[in-house]
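Researcher: I'd like a structural prediction for the single chain below. Treat it as a standalone chain; there are no partners to consider.
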Amino acid sequence: MAATLAVVLAGFLHITFGISIFLAPRDGRCSPAPPVMSCIFSVAALLLAKDVTLYPKSYINLPYFEFAVDTIGSLVMVELAVGVVWCSIEQLVHHVLRLILLFLGMKEEAYLLLEFWLLLPLTTAVAGFFLYKMTMAVMPR
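Model: Treating it as a single chain, here is the predicted structure.
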């Protein structure tokens, strides 16, 4: 189990400041969906980081080093989860929604005007689902 303060610090750095140390940030966003959903997915990734043991038990006598390893490891996990996994999911949802609506006959101008509002409930549901599943996986019963 990673230190709670280390995971909170990693989440604060990533969510608030958008600091990305290990992954090159993409130019722009992954899709026109609201960026709040990536924050929800980040919380799910932080729950996973809290549940994983990152520091070996044999080096337990170095507490500051443990804090640094937990913080950096949590930051790596959140960056990979959001930068690779969530971005791919968000792009997939965006493209599938666009294909379905344009196939069903929606005008492209109307789609572009409503794109943000059409993606809002879908990406919220997907991010909320991942947060719910992660909560069920890591929280004790």
